[in-house]
Amino acid sequence: MYNSEYKGKQVLVAADHGSFASVAAAAQAEQQIDWWDRDSADADICTACYAAVEIAEHFRLALGDPPPLLVNRDEAARIRDCRLVIWVGPPPATASAGAAWQNWLMAREAEWETLPEEGYVITSYVEEAAVHWIIAAKDRLGLLYGAYALLEELGFRWFGLGAAGMHLPPPKQLEPRMIELLDYPRFHTRGVYSEHINDSSTELLDWLGRNRVNFASLDHIRNPHALQKRGIRICMGGHNILYRFLNPHAEYPGSYDDNDSSLTMGIAPAQARPLTYAEAHPEWFGFIDGKRSFNVGEGDREGFGDNFCTTNPDAVRELCRRLTDDLTDGEWKHADYLNFWMLDNGNWCQCSHCRDAGNCSTRMILLVHALRKHLDTAVESGRLKRRINIIFPIYHETLPAPDRPLPEDFDYSSCYPTYFPIERCFLHPLSDPRCTESNQELMETFLPWTTDGDRYYRGEVFMGEYYNVGSFAACPVPLMTIMKQDIPFYYESGIRHFHYMHLTGGQWGTLTLTNYQLYRMLWNPSADTERMLEEYYELYYGSEAERARGFYETLEEAMRNSKYLKHYQYSRGSRHSLTGYLREDAAELFPLQHMQYDARADSSNAGISLTECVQLLSVCRRLLDSALDHARDEVVVARLLEDELRFAYLEDMVHYIYGLVRIHSFAKSGADSRARRAFQRVRRFAESLEHNTIAVSPSTRFRLYDNGLKASWCEQAYLRYKARYE
Hints:
This protein is α/β, with parallel strands linked by helices. The protein is 41% helix and 14% strand. Helix 16 packs parallel to helix 17 and helix 22 packs antiparallel against helix 23.
């Protein structure tokens, strides 16, 4: 029930529901709206009413029934005997609160005029016994974000998914009072990227919207209207573009084999064997090592292979035509952004025309420029109803900045690159000069894209981080310290767009903090991160806050070398990976100073050793068990159990890798009896991982994540030792 401040008084939440029957009806009308018509008034109304419903529902959750009354704003101006009125959008001029809003505008005109996109204002007005909270913005997302800012000011938090991840304030915190807020996002794009999940979870969509995520690139988009209502713009594309739109093995329309015997027997050409793209136009495809290559993978190899000849104008035209058709009325017709990527680690054409065109980045930019022209023509003709932003990769072979000027009419406003530092370590911040083995090499490519005075590229840059890179496979790798240092650095370097790979769909465990901290910092990278972390432990873990913090911080230290341990990092142009070396049965497993087996190198590059990692995980286990022993609040217990599920998976994973390292050492030295004994222990962890399908799910695309053993990325090493020592 309501507390005494609200009993006998109405709480109103007012919004303009336009031509819809009610505020609630407008809030649920997303399927009726063309969100890709940027001038749609109904889109503004739907999101504003959804914001009003969100406020009312959160009040109901905190205070109980009856919920606040949802009313049209004109009706709200006539209702009396109110304790609190919350206006989602400026009040009408006929209401006394409307005059108060006009007074605010006159007093703070300059602040309003310069309020950035997605920013909001919350101001208060007292009329007799009623408090009015006015949420105002210049766009629908600003209103939605203002609603969430108001709820946060009252004490609501959305740390994790669903009701279990939400913090409700005590009723006293919702008492009417004067509130004055003005804020806006510092990062323009605050994105989520995942090749493993879709948008079918309403809990996930709610979490994204409430934490101001406004960009989504997911494996499949099934609910585009639900995303758009929450202000989440949709990105399509990726490394599969050539497979879909310029596949050498696909049928080339309207072309047939002249040597097909059916053509000489009077049979209609429709029954003859059609040519493939490679057969019809071999010159369109990459010239690799002295011959044309038609290597574009499919199945598990989709997205890999050899790129096409990007200087062949007919090939470029065909690719752009087919992409434009698909973006107009095909599978990607709901895209607001296009990840326009070539093949993953793909080889680039070596023909003389391509070599003369510039380095790989220059060629990529010229290709982007051509696609932009095709899309603009489609918009001008009325065939394509929206302007799509094109995002291209700064990744592996395109890490070096363009080596010559861009076209004079290159559209910087809608075409920009994503810098992907997949080669980095997480032991050091990206800009740390002490990391001479890895991150400083990346800085030599980062600065020429972002801040160098003589750079050719002069536009905005997207950042694509790897806080749950594919081979981490949802292992809990806290990165509080790295994010505290990296995200402000990115902002100071001019980065205004950000996402990370790969968000998981549920059972986040300690990944909850990674997700929550990231989007708080993307909203404002200069906010008090330490205070945010304190609040997270206090509100999420209650009486167990101190033990939980110790657990997180110890786990972060244990996993500081996670990139080398579980993925890879580059040094001097070469890839180094512990799991990779185990797969290959390499002679040396620890060639980098970053991570040694049982000691730390005397170097600024040096971090935690593998044996130290194992030891610290034991400390983590004691802290987590102690928290579970002492917790009494069932909500806190559920959160700790989710942490435990994911941590147990990590324990098995690290002990498994540690055991393989020991077997490798014994086997190389001829100590077979010790290797055999070590294998017996590793087998227990391997079997536990193999039976663990929960921690790695869901992943709808990749067999590597069928279970924890496959997700180790070094199952081959285990099978090799199994054949030898079992």
